[in-house]
Amino acid sequence: AQKITQTQPGMFVQEKEAVTLDCTYDTSDQSYGLFWYKQPSSGEMIFLIYQGSYDEQNATEGRYSLNFQKARKSANLVISASQLGDSAMYFCAMLPWDYGGATNKLIFGTGTLLAVQP
Amino acid sequence: DAGVIQSPRHEVTEMGQEVTLRCKPISGHDYLFWYRQTMMRGLELLIYFNNNVPIDDSGMPEDRFSAKMPNASFSTLKIQPSEPRDSAVYFCASSPDRVTDTQYFGPGTRLTVL
Question: How confident is the model at residue A102 (pLDDT cuts 50, 70, 90)?
Fold first, then answer.
């Protein structure tokens, strides 16, 4: 079964420090995409970063980077220089590339609530 | 460019009433998705469309739920009759033109059924 696991229900980090949010996935597909979304208290889902299963380089977007370890099936999000505005729920998601079935079903983890402390 | 637009942002209704949620995807996006988020079940896909055609509605909970996409810039999710267990945040998302593309979410509609 395809599944995303986020083992950290909640985390604290001091402002300006780096933090790593864990994500492991389970799939038998060879091709897939991995995504991180941020959900602040206002409720919207904000796309942060994407990593394709065939990408050899770890994805980076500003202060966000994705530590992709394919053999371990992990896709951890690293936020550098945390800011108070980073306080939010963070979701890891996987999109299996089932071209034959043309499914576009994003599979989400349960999320990690990050609190940035001043 | 405008993102995904959803209306209303909040909806409070009584059990048995019909509820219609609306979504305008990002212009030029071929795929549109409806998700539901609850504390118990997290985020789950209800249905998605490609070029206005429903592709997979296996996530629609029951016949009380229906979704339409009459044109490329508008979709509705209807619940009739509504029940308290339908209370959730409903998200609409869209993505460009490939199965691998990133999905961009709207702000969501928070539905409360009393």
Answer: very low
Cα Rg of chain A (Å, integer): 14
Cross-strand partners of B34:
B47, B92
Between chains, do B102 and A47 touch, taking CB under 8 Å as contact? yes
Read off the pLDDT of residues A40-97 as tens digits, 9 standing for 90 and up. 999 999 999 999 999 989 999 999 999 999 999 999 999 999 999 999 999 999 988 7
CA distance A107 to chain B (A): 8
Residue A96: the pLDDT is 84
Average pLDDT over residues B37-50: 93
Asked if B33 and B103 touch (Cβ cutoff 8 Å), the reply is yes
- Indicate the pLDDT class of residue A35, thresholds 50, 70 and 90: very high
How far apart CA A49 and CA A86 sit, in angstroms, is 14
Chain A residues with CB under 8 Å of B110 CB are 43
| 8-state DSSP, B63 | T
Cα B39 from Cα B51, distance rounded (Å): 31
CA distance B102 to A114: 23
A112-117 vs A10-14, strand pairing mode: parallel
Cβ of B99 and A98 within 8 Å? yes
Chain B segment 61-100 residues within 8 A of A by beta carbon are 89, 91, 93, 95, 99-100
